[in-house]
Specification:
The structure holds 2 protein chains of 2 kinds.
Chain A: E1 4-7, E2 10-13, E3 18-25, E4 31-37, E5 44-50, E6 53-57, E7 64-70, E8 73-79, E9 87-94, E10 104-105, E11 109-113
Chain B: E1 5-7, E2 10-14, E3 19-24, E4 31-37, E5 44-49, E6 55-58, E7 61-65, E8 71-76, E9 85-92, E10 101-102, E11 106-111
Parallel strand pairs in B: 2-11
Antiparallel strand pairs in B: 1-3, 3-8, 4-5, 4-9, 6-7, 7-8, 9-10, 9-11
Classes of the chains: A mainly beta, B mainly beta.
Amino acid sequence: DTEVTQTPKHLVMGMTNKKSLKCEQHMGHRAMYWYKQKAKKPPELMFVYSYEKLSINESVPSRFSPECPNSSLLNLHLHALQPEDSALYLCASSRLFFSGNTIYFGEGSWLTVV
Amino acid sequence: GQQLNQSPQSMFIQEGEDVSMNCTSSSIFNTWLWYKQEPGEGPVLLIALYKAGELTSNGRLTAQFGITRKDSFLNISASIPSDVGIYFCAGQPPSGTYKYIFGTGTRLKVLA
């Protein structure tokens, strides 16, 4: 079972709102990722958590705040977003964050900022 | 960020035809992953390749890890309408941060 579950599937938020995207996996993976994907473009890495610790932040603006409460859960807190932040946000996981790791994606959360 | 050269950019084919696409780079990679993404969905892993020269199949799909480690190929045989989607390759460099670099995608449309 290679399933990464993301909620909500769709989110519309105003620029002054605070919202969160949630991700869950029960594969025992110890690495979890957030990617951002614009239409017709490949996914762009935002954050990597390894063993619940932030390993990589790809210079993402502070209006995006990741959180990894435990090894199965990953959140992305959103605050004061801009319309250009509208995109598909993908959560992913892999057994480890290491050479040869295989990444499994969730179905994504469609975010629209109005 | 850095991206892999993936070609062709798009393909329109007739049902039943075979399809070939590839990813190339000037740098070597340790691992190649191939994904398919349908509209409104996340990428689904099709095939993972872990060593140079490796040839792996998944049903009608076959992928190869190039012997130079700088490229990878994906073939789809006897295409069907549900093969429609965007196919992405992703390569992991041998050193550094273990981050994957994604190809620009091949958009496949199958005409019945």
